[in-house]
Amino acid sequence: MAFEGLSERLQSALAKLRGKGKVSEADVKAAMREVRLALLEADVNYKVVKDFVSKVRERAVGQEVLKSLTPGQQVIKVVNEELTRLMGGTQSKLELSSKPAVIMMVGLQGAGKTTTTGKLGRYLKKQNKRPLLVAGDVYRPAAIRQLEVLGEQVDLPVFSLGDKESPVRIAEEGVAKAKEEGHDTVLVDTAGRLHIDGKMMEELKAIKDTVRPDEILLVVDAMTGQDAVNVAESFNRELGLTGVVLTKLDGDTRGGAALSVKSVTDCPVKFVGMGEKVDALEPFHPERMASRILG
Ligand code: GDP
């Protein structure tokens, strides 16, 4: 289960405050020391932890909280609100205004980009959209075939020109085809590499300039913690992301990526991957996630 360790540690740090009739500043400080350690152990970015703890402490030692009838509960409420805020506050939805709206999927190899393209197509179809999937990952062997199989599974058409054409041309022709055939949404799968490199970024920029996407979604593997956050920072600097999809949240990820990526990059997490199957994609709700973590 994702966030299990973090969840347990935060709950035990805060349990000491919960039923207390009186809570002192020292009690809050002691609890916050444990919260700080729990977050660091979950691989949350150091600076994010520092800011989070000082914000909670400042609010929690305020007179309205400590002199309230249920001070322990109030401190926990502050922690919940700040955790929610850390993850973006409210749900960030896709903004699809162009006709057709273009969603460009980017990410490193193995993060789950192609799988997520299929999942997102299915999700949009359920919202009464008519998506076209475009197979632009020409470098990873079998990525095109993989998208075609996903397309069959979710009953959506897949546009492909094989792996000999340039990804820019594939994206451009895919969007033209979508227009012709009356699709309202185009999901362009792009090539990832094992590591970020200049050539990949140049190619992604060229695709961006050509198809002018409404959304550029970075797919990152939540299991990679701070690495995922660093990847998001680089992609955002080079391309300007509109959102992040965190995959593999069904695994035992510690929580660092989910809790840091918004603060570090200012890009909201829009979806989370919860498994390998095509229906395992969910919109990300910061408030629900915070409540789940705090139990
Ligand atoms: P790409 O190279 O980024 O296109 O990665 P793929 O889409 O091929 O995914 C790599 C592996 O991760 C595949 O085995 C997927 O089934 C798996 N995967 C993708 N998303 C998830 C997820 O949310 N949870 C789990 N458990 N596995 C996932």
Automatic annotation (TrEMBL):
Its EC number is 3.6.5.4. The keyword Hydrolase applies. It comes from Melghirimyces profundicolus. This is Signal recognition particle protein. GO terms for molecular function: 7S RNA binding; GTP binding; GTPase activity. Its main location: cytoplasm. Composed of three domains: the N-terminal N domain, which is responsible for interactions with the ribosome, the central G domain, which binds GTP, and the C-terminal M domain, which binds the RNA and the signal sequence of the RNC. Part of the signal recognition particle protein translocation system, which is composed of SRP and FtsY. It is found in: Cytoplasm. It catalyses: GTP + H2O = GDP + phosphate + H(+). The keyword Aminoacyl-tRNA synthetase does not apply. Involved in targeting and insertion of nascent membrane proteins into the cytoplasmic membrane. Binds to the hydrophobic signal sequence of the ribosome-nascent chain (RNC) as it emerges from the ribosomes. The SRP-RNC complex is then targeted to the cytoplasmic membrane where it interacts with the SRP receptor FtsY. GTP binds at residues 107-114, 189-193, 247-250. The chain holds residues 1 to 295 of 449 of the full protein. GO terms for biological process: SRP-dependent cotranslational protein targeting to membrane. Belongs to the GTP-binding SRP family. SRP54 subfamily. Keywords: Cytoplasm, GTP-binding, Hydrolase, Nucleotide-binding, Ribonucleoprotein, RNA-binding, Signal recognition particle.
